[in-house]
Amino acid sequence: MKVSRFVFNMFGINTYIMWDPESKEAAIVDPGMIDDREREAIDSFLTRNSLKPTQLINTHMHLDHIFGNTYIKEKYGLEIKAHPEDDFLGRTLTSQAERFHLPLTLSNAGLDVELHDGDTLHLGEEKIEVISVPGHSPGSIALYCPESSFVITGDALFQGSIGRTDLPRGNHATLLDSIRRRLFTLPDDTVVLPGHGGETTIGYEKQHNPYF
Questions:
Q1: In this structure, what are the phi and psi dihedrals at residue 70, rounded to the nearest 5 degrees?
Q2: In terms of DSSP bridges, do strands 113-114 and 120-123 run parallel, antiparallel, or are they unpaired?
Q3: What is the DSSP letter of 79?
Q4: CA nearest 3: which of 112, 129, 150, 204?
Q5: Angstrom distance (rounded) from CA 80 to CA 73
């Protein structure tokens, strides 16, 4: 599995494209594009690499991670996949933007396909395991690719930090428990690809993250 990172919008979120080099099937994770320049960055990358988008996945549905959902859904004919506990966030994108005083024209869009803990997705022959990591949001998930030894953690776990829990239905104790039980049990050499900032590893965070 290959993966590329794009940093988008005023919140500096990481949008990822994962793809299988054999089948050219690709998944777009947390499309945060906010303008034509950012949308073109995704489109041109897909075209340049002859990739076929087959999945649109949200690790969670806070506004910065879903700005581009409607665009990707309509342009590539994909369904929005996310945990059902975060559906209310997708359906209230416009009010989320109002709380941050963002003068944007947006469309609310809930999920189309429910993802649950233990589900398995595929790109080509390689599997993507869905891991529930609630706390930052009630429906936060991580996407673990065991054969390629990386996990996309959304806003649950960062390099040297964790996600904020002061947004609707966030819970600090739940997040810490999720990380300990669901992420820190992965192999130490697993590369962590977070929703903001640079990559790290499970082993490094277990030893050095100040929240643990």
A1: -65, -40
A2: unpaired
A3: P
A4: 150
A5: 7
Token readout for 119 is 């589900």
CA gap 204, 191 in Å, rounded:
10
Contact 72, 46 (CB under 8 A): no
Question: CA nearest 169: which of 54, 89, 98, 115?
Answer: 89
Give Cα 64 distance to the centre of its chain.
Answer: 10
Alpha carbons 199 and 36: distance in angstroms, whole number: 27
Predicted confidence (pLDDT) per residue in 61-115, tens digit: 999 999 999 999 999 999 999 999 999 999 999 888 888 888 888 888 899 999 9
Closest CA to 58 of 151, 165, 167, 142: 142
Concatenating the DSSP letter of every residue in 123-184 gives ETTEEEEEEE-TTSSTT-EEEEETTTTEEEEETSEETTEE----STT--HHHHHHHIIIIIT
